Amino acid sequence: MASEVTQNTLMYFVLPLWLAAGFADYLCHRHADIEHTSGWKESLLHLLQFGEMAIPVLAALFLEINTLVIAVMIICFALHEVTALWDVRYAVATREVTPLEQHIHSFLEMLPLMALLMVVALHWDQFIALFGMAPARFDIAWKSPPLGVTYVVTILALVLLFEVLPYLEELWRGLRAERTSRSDSIRRDS
What we know:
This protein is mainly alpha-helical.
């Protein structure tokens, strides 16, 4: 019963809230006009963070959770945290990062940790296997039984609509602004 509650909380609360926080962060960036301040370089850091978290999320959606998957999740989380620090350091040097955006960042750091801890709680034996305290499984296998098709398609569609497309649009705006700025500079110099 407790594991079912934990899994449902992860699937229907933590993951959707995390997606909402990611979209809210995008809206903060849009409001801050990052294409004219920190530019496309900050957008690349956002996409890097997205990629670092896409790996464990896709693994959780499609693969059996075992010692290997948990290790990959921990590594990706650590990389995400390092990149988040890099991102904020770059952002505050080039533009104003508002208190609201900073608060949203706290969600974007804690929700992946919360998700990781829930996965660990659900698969404790495979987590302690990292430390030699239980038999470890390192095979890559499809989740059995798989998550429901409706859930997976819905989550992937939400990720596409509220994460992938907005952050690609952010990158495109930054690249376009730099190209326009360069063209204007060349015209002025001519």
